[in-house]
Design brief:
- This protein has a single domain, classed as Ferritin, core subunit, four-helix bundle (Ferritin, Up-down Bundle).
- It is mainly α.
- The protein is built from five helices and no strands.
- Helix content is 75%, strand content 0%.
- Bound molecules: MU-OXO-diiron (FEO).
Amino acid sequence: MDQKVAELLNDQINKELYSAYLYLDMANFYSAKGLDGFANWYEIQAREEQDHAMLMYRYLHNNSQTVTLEAVAKPDKAFRELSDPLKAAYEHEQYVTGLISAIYAAAQEVRDYRTIQFLDWFVKEQGEEEKNASDLITKMELFGGDAKGLYMLNSELGGRAYSAPSLQL
Ligand code: FEO
């Protein structure tokens, strides 16, 4: 396997674990505000990010690569308004899409079709994650402005259930 592609995937494990940590911090923020549905949404998001990291970890091992685990950075975003995490999450997913695209481009450069095929799942997943994050901002703007609307939105987000990733290695 090309070493640059392997290194980028190795770095991405760390980025995905940071994403998990960031989303857990968002759940933490909402939990403290008494919004258990929003907290549930981000707790599940955090689990999905751990799944993403594990997929990359297994993929590297399946391709005889050594994985190096680095320190996971402290989540350092300050949230004040209830909509702050929603906006930060959308920005973060756009950033992650850029990272996945960079690995994809590196794999293309060396004609690593196996990694390209592996990453196709992540490309699609990023599209879904950006849409979900953007939809949440819209819903908050439309319905989050009064107590009843916020209550309903919190109930809706509380209904999100975890499911394992459709990609299995
Ligand atoms: Fe692992 Fe939210 O992308």
